[in-house]
Amino acid sequence: MCLSHSARVTLHHIEARRSIRSFTDRPVSQEDLLTVLRAANQAPSAHNQQSWRFSVLRGKRKQELATLVNARAGEFPRAAAVLLRMAARSINSAPVVVVVANTGALIDHGTKLFQIDKPLAQDFFKTMEIQSSAAAIQNLLVAATSLGLATVWLGILFLIKDDVLRLMGEREGEFMAVIPVGYEAKPGIAPKKIDFEMMVSWLD
Ligand SMILES: Cc1cc2nc3c(=O)[nH]c(=O)nc-3n(C[C@H](O)[C@H](O)[C@H](O)COP(=O)(O)O)c2cc1C
């Protein structure tokens, strides 16, 4: 197959992205941070509502998050507690952390526009908000990879989402993800992926 240079570069970054959980203390430049946030904001979103918010935590605020995650880890059964403590270590070691929340703007917009059964509308547009933000997060992760930055999508913090949102100052929002960003302390090991052919049905 003959691919253009830009296609090869894009596909390379998609494949090269790894979840990295431990970071060096090398800082991330403001320019690089703006680049990944701009890429996130370019994602497709239902009704083009861009119903996401990004909070960039550094310094004292980032440390507060790591302390909070550690403090609350003990309240959960072992498997969750282990993952929360791992997440706290990642947050601690990364120079910067991006927290992603959904704003609810799409839920309000869609519920008014469609005038369908309210619980159905809530379910529908909440799902659309999650899907839109997931696209934004993936853009952020791949853009970071293209700049030589390492990331990990931490979903486990959903377990303490109200505290996380409070720390971000997002009272209305819905938790989506916490993403430490930095330079990898050691290269990530590529986990084995099920071949895409196993996931595809060709229906003619
Ligand atoms: C929705 C979502 C939630 C995740 N939550 C966590 C998490 O809480 N902690 C963690 O270490 N990794 C988390 N990950 C990263 C996955 O473990 C990782 O993507 C997977 O093992 C495949 O590795 P790769 O990203 O290097 O391809 C999450 C990934 C996704 C998409």
What does this molecule look like?
Keywords: Membrane, Transmembrane, Transmembrane helix. By secondary structure, this protein is of the alpha+beta class. It has one domain: 3-Layer(aba) Sandwich (NADH Oxidase), CATH 3.40.109. It has 7 helices and 4 strands, in the order H-H-E-H-H-E-H-H-E-H-E. A 4-stranded antiparallel beta sheet has the order 1-2-4-3. The longest helix has 29 residues, at 118-146. Bound molecules: flavin mononucleotide.
Radius of gyration, CA atoms, in whole angstroms: 18 Å
Percent helix among the residues? Answer: 40-55%
Ligand species: flavin mononucleotide
Stretches where pLDDT is under 50 for at least 5 consecutive residues are none
- The number of distinct helices, counting runs of at least 4 residues, comes to 7
In CATH terms, what is the fold-level topology?
Answer: NADH Oxidase
Number of domains: 1
Largest sheet: 4 strands, antiparallel
* CATH class call: Alpha Beta
Net shape: globular
Counting helices, strands and paired strands, the structural category is: alpha+beta
In the CATH hierarchy, what is the architecture at level 2?
A: 3-Layer(aba) Sandwich
Spatial order of the strands in the main sheet? 1-2-4-3
- Kindly estimate the percentage of residues that lie in beta strands according to DSSP: 5-15%
The first-to-last residue Cα distance is 23 Å
CATH superfamily: NADH Oxidase
Overall residue-averaged pLDDT value:
95
Number of extended strands:
4
SSE string, helices as H and strands as E? HHEHHEHHEHE
Protein name: Nitroreductase
Pfam families: Nitroreductase
Transmembrane segments: 140-160
Domain Nitroreductase: 14-183
